[in-house]
Specification:
Layout: E1 5-9, E2 12-17, E3 20-25, E4 32-36, H1 39-48, E5 53-55, H2 59-62, E6 65-69, H3 75-89
Antiparallel strand pairs: 1-2, 2-3, 3-4, 4-6, 5-6
Amino acid sequence: MPEAIEGAHMGHPDFRVGGRIFATLSYPRRGFGMVKLTAEQQELFVNTRPKAFAPVPGKWGERGATHVRLQAAKQGDVREALTLAWQNHAPVPKARRD
């Protein structure tokens, strides 16, 4: 994931691109993660993989913030969710000028 960096926010490791958080670990507690999906992406993950993915409570969850239960999630599903979250927040490349 080009330009992604690891940081920390409120005591949790996080991952950012373009200065924006797209994923965290150990939130709300150890064994969980969070990915910032679109509401549509979140609906797909929650409906098709309900044991692994759940909306974050409140407004953040309504906007696509999604808990990941790491023990219940398949590696490929986590990879897909992380990739989507990164794509949602990655800066759009500027068009080349020739």
